[in-house]
Design brief:
The protein is an all-alpha fold. It contains 5 helices and no strands.
């Protein structure tokens, strides 16, 4: 089986694990949030890795960097959803802090990746 370039990116691997953890986390959200916050946070967390994968298939560095920027935007949107989940009492302080730290690391890696791509 062929391994695509995005699968080798540490940033994508972290985004993949983060998405998995978000999907496990939202299982405990109230049922009436299934079409609200649950759906939104699942989509935004998935989009982090999705944009990295799609961008890896682009030809120019500018296009690749653009998709990394989209991935960063999705991570920021996910931070907002994590804040909302915490405000609503759906996640504990410890969960909030853990997910925020993961997202901080991920956004830092995305910024570094974007800068690296634009240098080439």
């Amino acid at each position: 089986m062929h391994t695509y370039s995005f699968e080798k990116l540490e940033t994508w691997q972290k985004a993949r694990l983060f998405r998995k953890n978000i999907y496990l986390l939202v299982k405990k959200f109230p049922r009436d949030e299934i079409f609200g916050l649950t759906s939104q946070i699942k989509r935004s967390s998935s989009s982090i890795g999705d944009c990295l994968a799609e961008g890896s298939a682009r030809i120019t560095a500018k296009d690749k960097a653009y998709f990394v920027s989209l991935s960063y935007s999705s991570a920021i949107e996910t931070i907002n959803h994590i804040i909302g989940a915490h405000d609503l009492g759906y996640i504990t302080d410890a969960e909030y802090n853990s997910y925020r730290l993961n997202l901080d690391e991920l956004t830092n890696k995305l910024n570094a990746l974007r800068k690296s791509i634009l240098k080439t």
